[in-house]
Amino acid sequence: MIRIRAGAPRRTGRRLPRAEPTGIRRALTLGLPTVWGAVAITYKLACPLAQQDGLGARIVTSAVFFAVGTGLIVHVRGVLLRELRQLREIAGAAQNVLLRPLPPRVEGLAVAAGRLSASRGASVGGDLYEVAATDHGVRVVMGDVRGHGLAAIATAAAVLGSFREAAYEEPELPLVLRRLERALGRHLRERSRAEHPAGGGPAPESPVAEEFVTVLLMEIGPDGEVTALNCGHPWPHRLSGRAEQVSGGEPLPPLGPFPLPPELPLLHCGPLLPGEALVLHTDGMEDARDAAGRFFPLREALTEAARVPPVVPQAVICAVYDQLLRHTGRLPADDAALLVLRNDRRLVPLQGEAVPSASTMS
After folding, report:
1. Comparing 4-8, 303-307, 311-315, which segment has the lowest mean pLDDT?
2. Tens of pLDDT along 120-140?
3. How far apart are CA 182 and CA 188, in angstroms?
4. Are 225 and 271 in contact (CB under 8 A)?
5. 282: Cβ–Cβ under 8 A, 6 or more apart, which residues?
6. Of 155, 199, 289, 292, which has the highest C-beta tally within 10 A?
7. 87-96 b/e (C-beta count within 10 Å ≥ 16 → b)
8. Rounded to the nearest 5°, which phi and psi values hold at 127?
9. Among residues of the chain, what percentage have pLDDT more than 70?
10. Nearest C-alpha neighbor of 7 from the set 275, 340, 301, 311
């Protein structure tokens, strides 16, 4: 399922639907099948027509029992659909808490995000992203948890929860990464205790020792300068007429298997100029294959999506996912997330520098 978050503003003042009383709903759920069954039994025992053996009597009796059976099937189907609708609403609310909708603009940056889950009917997996406007600049995280299922969602929640606090509190980006490492370590230790055979729980889908998270931390300063810390995650692309991969140097190992080194030097990725866009993604985009085994050409798809300026983040996401699904012909084998940030800030001249007027430009 594709979820595209273009940062639509939240509406307030919406009236909540009136909840149906639980007692009435339970009575209807249990009472209607009883009524249908009573009708069938009463007809069979009390109706003289039901005691006859003629062809007409048999046809009427069959019609009565067919109507009763159809009513029961329709009732049960309605109950199951109502419960499924409620479960989907609850799951959607929980998923939005984990990957909450991003605002349309963050400190002069236009923002849009999308995700494609490998599991049919799900919109959240092991991919994670967040954008935070802090006193230290706009901080962005994009990550990918190894594996799928509930364990991957819990790990993603632990990392995201830590980032949402550390991004505002820590003055330097390396300190934010240290906080993410400690939060992941606590989560894995708690999970290891819960999955221990002495606890009597089911066997885990993947051992804790093999768990890791790739993380890309980026900070966009007021002047557009981009710095990053990369823990085994794919480098982003810069859109400026065409897509070019940003590379700030050798990445660190993913979080989890090994401790971070004592020194965490920031990687300088150059400025994000006004009008340019930065595209962060998970490896599910580049690893998607078609029936012949060919990988999805992400850079070409981004270049095609940004061919006509200005770059519109939501349009880029829609175009890339459309090409991805056409390339694979089905849902990809791994979750695929995409995050686009366009610099809408204006160039401000230095103090004392004259701003060119229309007459001087002509």
Report:
1. 4-8
2. 555 556 789 999 999 999 999
3. 10
4. yes
5. 127, 142, 143, 144, 214, 233, 234, 334, 335, 336, 337
6. 155
7. eeeeeeeebe
8. -85, 145
9. 69
10. 340
Report the distance separating Cα 67 and Cα 21, nearest Å. 29
Question: Smallest Cα–Cα separation from 213: which of 227, 228, 230, 236?
Answer: 230
Q: Dump pLDDT digits (tens) for 110-123.
A: 999 988 876 555 55
Q: Is the pLDDT of residue 299 over 80?
A: yes
pLDDT of residue 18: 46
CA 278, CA 109: separation in Å to the nearest integer? 10
Which amino acid makes up residue 192?
A: S
Query: Treating both helix axes as pointing N-terminal to C-terminal, what angle do 149-169 and 55-98 enclose, rounded to 10 degrees?
Result: 30
Question: Looking at domain 101-343, what is its CATH homologous superfamily?
Answer: PPM-type phosphatase domain (3.60.40.10)
pTM recorded for the entire structure: 0.71
Tokens (6 digits) for 218: 């980026």
Is the separation of the CB atoms in 115 and 335 below 8 Å? yes
Q: Residue 343 is encoded by which pair of tokens?
A: 């610099």
Number of Cα atoms under 13 Å in the Cβ half of residue 158: 24
Length of the chain: 362
